[in-house]
Fold this protein.
Amino acid sequence: MTRLVKTACVRNCPNTCSLIAKVEGERLVALVGDPDSPTNAGRVCPKCLVYPQRVYDPRRVLYPLVKVKGRFERIAWDAAVDLLAEKIANLIKTKPKAFFYYQGFGSRTALKLVNRRLFNLLGPITTLTGTVCGGAGQAAQDLDYGSRISHDFRDHLKSSMMIVWGRNPAVTSLNIARVMKAQLVEGRPVVLIDPVRTQSEKLSSWFLNPKPGSDAQLALALARLIFEAGREDKDFLANHALGLEKYKEVVFQDDLAKRAKDCDLEPEDIKTLAQMIMDNKPVAFVLGWGLHRWRNSHITVRAIDALGAVAGSIGRAGGGVSQGFEEYQPYDWSVWGDSLQPHSRRFLMPILGEELEKTEPKIKACLITAGNPLATLPDSQRVRASFSTIPFKAVCGHFLDDTALLADLFLPATTFLEETDVVAGYGHSYICPVNQAIKPLGECRSDFDLFMALGRKLGLTDYVKTAAEWLKIILAPTIKMGISLETIKAGGAYQPDIPHVPYEDFKFPTATGDFHLLDHFEEPLVRDPERPLALISGSPREWLGSEIWPGEILTLLPVTINAGLAQELGIKEGDPVWVTSELGRLKAQAHLDPLARPDVAAMPRGGWEQHGLNVNVLTRAMLTKVGHGTAYYQTRVSLEKVD
Ligand SMILES: Nc1nc2c(c(=O)[nH]1)N[C@H]1C(S)=C(S)[C@@H](COP(=O)(O)OP(=O)(O)OC[C@H]3O[C@@H](n4cnc5c(=O)[nH]c(N)nc54)[C@H](O)[C@@H]3O)O[C@H]1N2
Ligand SMILES: Nc1nc2c(c(=O)[nH]1)N[C@H]1C(S)=C(S)[C@@H](COP(=O)(O)OP(=O)(O)OC[C@H]3O[C@@H](n4cnc5c(=O)[nH]c(N)nc54)[C@H](O)[C@@H]3O)O[C@H]1N2
Ligand SMILES: [Mo]
């Protein structure tokens, strides 16, 4: 007999797909899309189809481990919890800031809110601030709109034209990919803008391949052409936008020829795109995370927001400049308990190596959950070196990845298939159930169970509640709006307070109530000009984040470069090459593309250093100027053949 359990993929991905887990006896046999889902409507991506293999992978760690004389040995859960609780309790008494809690992005479900709460109830420890994901763009949109809310992806079907900008939906966004396909079938233009040729090219009717990091100049050039044609949205700009004069100054600062040169595009192509924007209303601008990973990302996103205003896209069905959703939106944020500890210390995630190295008092013990900072943070060598100096490191996860290998205590986590929870996503506003499909494997425990056990041990009696009790508290704002936990459990519901077309009333939650136009321009930063290639390390098709299959690893990371450039360097297809940044070098395998830009090296992110596959040994740790994001793509590299 096959049991079918409605659940959802909680992994770090904007689609947050509703799933059906097929279970035979006690074994998960398949994960398929939930046909009743209004979002993924029965579809699911390749990463999910193979996920059951990850759940049962023989290398998954199913028992707590402690390191004794450099080797992992099994330890009982009670003893493991005692050990960790003792480290926490001792430091809380003496030097609370010397305890560090690192919460990664591997799973962002409702119950994960109680993790930080435990520490906030205890004392002012050290936690994180900033992000390696989408901070810069979110901060930019908060400046322009007052609050970042995107159009529901199904609303893009009402657009006359889509511009997909710095995003790779064929790999990362199944729902957007579906909309792009549908638009193509209807004969509507779908323009893709990316300095790297990706699988999404086939979902577009026109692919523009600008110089990396030059998108703000492109947006300003387009706006200028629309103003010059007198086709700007005069009503919106006059009545709902602030700062038109200043914005126009910025727009008219440079002419088309200069801007085309800045973006390395043909002036005629920019003119054609401007004409298309004027002739096809409404235009849906759909932005991706590639735009967030530059020092001046805020200027880029604000320039595109403003272009959206000029084009008449803001607040209109089928329009919008959409970039994501707040995945914690349905919850009561006071559960985190941050107000209980105004003097907690916050380390900036994008420059964590430096923070750990330089900031006093030094960290004496840490807990890492759902993250693999040694593989995913920039300048990973520095992150590794600084973590290595921490006397006690507890890591809670699934596999012995780079971070786990360094642990003194490893706590085996359940996957979402072994858990009951609720999850919302950053690619839509649908709240999904996480219903337990199978029993926890081995001695695995959810983060929630681990935190409740710690709470019990540390005497936090009010903190220790059942998952059902906590879900009721965490989801109180949503329940108040009429969405019951039972409704969510049965399949899910849209967040009632998030409109599918935001700002239709043209009322913006900014200080003035208006949409705020870009008020200045900053030249993109060019660092390390002697290295000729921008290193773009985007999302790989085959794996998610650093959840790379330990069994199916590549021998070398591929690096895609222009074929002509390769020829000049004496590099042939498949050759091993050194990719060198100012931080070091990594051996990779050359993949030649005659159409690739000659100023870009594209490599997949998320590989592990223990396999020689971590691109972050090359990336420099740099904060975005606004939003505490990470400017990964500001790294430049050179290439040479391995002798
Ligand atoms: N298969 C798979 N899916 C994933 C992930 C994964 O690792 N694997 N990761 C998940 C996560 S954490 C996230 S945040 C999302 C990210 O989702 P996406 O934003 O779709 O993916 P990325 O590959 O990060 O970046 C998108 C594109 O931006 C381009 N880009 C880089 N710099 C520039 C620039 O200056 N201008 C322009 N116009 N484009 C630029 C890159 O070449 C890349 O193709 O995907 C999620 N989904
Ligand atoms: N060079 C480069 N590096 C990048 C990026 C880039 O563009 N270029 N993009 C960045 C982006 S967008 C992101 S979001 C980050 C992601 O970086 P991280 O936050 O480090 O996330 P993951 O790599 O997905 O690691 C998640 C880990 O959590 C585990 N896990 C999953 N669910 C649970 C759970 O419920 N409990 C516990 N305890 N563990 C769990 C998984 O098995 C996995 O090992 O990487 C960033 N790194
Ligand atoms: Mo991300």
Q: What stands out?
A: The two ends are 59 Å apart (CA to CA).
